Amino acid sequence: METLEYNHADFNAAQAEQDRALLVKFFSTPLKNEEKSLVEGRPIFDDVDMIEIRVRGTKDNIVQRPVRSDDKQRFREAWRAHSEGEKAVQSGTPLAQWPIMSSSQVEEMKYLGFVTVEQIANANDSVVANISGLQGLKNKAKAFIEFSKGAAPIEQLQNKLEASTNEVETLRRQLAENQQALAALTARMDKEETAKVAPRSELPKK
């Protein structure tokens, strides 16, 4: 029997690309332990770690179930934040910082699970097709990201130029201050030297 071979790195990369369109949340909830409840003769609940998965842009396609070991690896950052009691970090450019977005659009996208430009750029195509205006936003988000990548070297150069300009300005001020101090010192020394060599007043004749 022929064995199907595949590159695990390619598989993981493809999986990671698909996961970018998902909104994942870990949480804990008390669930009734039927076995313990039967033994004790009263309701016994255990705190169970749960996972909620949904595609950004949908409200009905939601999966909630107990956490599996592979979930912790697949969504490691969200799991780490949950384990440490932190809020999951959203990496990217916040929609509120995207100039084309109004406040109402930001709130609307937040309701649908989108909080960064990158999340809109990676929105699932099937979801985009069902939400009016989202395809246009996705195209603009992709263009914004690509333009930003191209503009990054220019911004870095501008930062270097600004730093150099500030450094030159600081040196210029220091030089001017030193020149003023030197001029003041020279004037004082000239005054003292003049006082030393000035002719004495003639004594009155008898």
pLDDT average, as an integer?
78
H/E element string? HEHEEHHHHHH
| Rg estimate, integer Å | 35 Å
User: What form results from the Cα inertia axes?
Assistant: elongated
Span between N and C termini? 140 Å
DSSP, total strands? 3
What is the beta-strand fraction? 5-15%
Low-confidence stretches: 1-11
Numbering strands along the chain, what is their spatial order in the largest sheet? 1-2-3
How many distinct helices?
A: 8
* Structural class determined from secondary elements: alpha+beta
Tell me about the largest β-sheet: 3 strands, antiparallel
The level of helicity is 55-70%
How does this model look, in words?
The structure is a single chain. By secondary structure, this protein is an alpha+beta fold. It has a domain at 1-79. 56% of the residues lie in helices and 13% in strands. It is built from eight helices and three strands. It has a three-stranded antiparallel beta sheet. The longest helix has 64 residues, at 134-197. The protein starts with 7 loop residues before the first helix and ends in a 9-residue tail after the last helix. The model is unreliable at 1-11 (pLDDT under 50).
